[in-house]
Amino acid sequence: QVQLVESGGGLAQAGGSLRLSCAASGSIFRINRMAWYRQAPGKQRDLVAAQTSGGSTNYADSVKGRFTISRDNAKNTVYLQMNSLKPEDTAVYYCNINALRYSTSYAGYYWGQGTQVTVSS
After folding, report:
1. CB of 38 closer than 8 Å to CB of 45
2. Contacts (Cβ under 8 Å, ≥6 apart) of 39
3. 76 by DSSP, 3-state: which?
4. Chain mean pLDDT for the chain
């Protein structure tokens, strides 16, 4: 099994910062892509940022220049540094990884439980 534990969400004022963390554990052989998604009430879940095992990143246009994704491969952890927060960033943020387990021959996708981020104006 693979478990993802997220932390770092909470309440911030517009213009402020928060840092999300997501630690993966379990029978993981290799993590390929690590990503963050978010879902606001009544809306679909959208990609915020992603990083490959080689370090390539991509961001949603709405967060470019404000958010930074990074990963610590030794700790199987991905981070999302969120600066210059806006009220429209309010959502539940989900960690997502593509990982190969020791017991399987294919890489699967796994989700965290989500962490609430609320930005007040």
Report:
1. yes
2. 45, 46, 91, 92, 94, 114
3. coil
4. 96
Burial group, residue 78, by CB count within 10 angstroms (0-12, 13-18, 19+): buried
Among 84, 90, 99, smallest CA distance to 22 is for 99
Strand ranges for the chain from DSSP E: 2-7, 10-13, 18-26, 28-39, 46-51, 57-59, 67-72, 77-82, 91-101, 107-111, 115-120
Confidence band, pLDDT 50/70/90 cuts, at residue 82: very high
108 three-state secondary structure = strand
Q: Hey, what are 118's tokens?
A: 């609320």
Q: Are 36 and 96 in contact (CB under 8 A)?
A: yes
Rounded to an integer, what distance in angstroms lies between the CA atom of residue 67 and that of residue 58? 11
**Banded model confidence at residue 17, pLDDT cuts 50, 70, 90:** very high
Q: Are 58 and 67 in contact (CB under 8 A)?
A: no
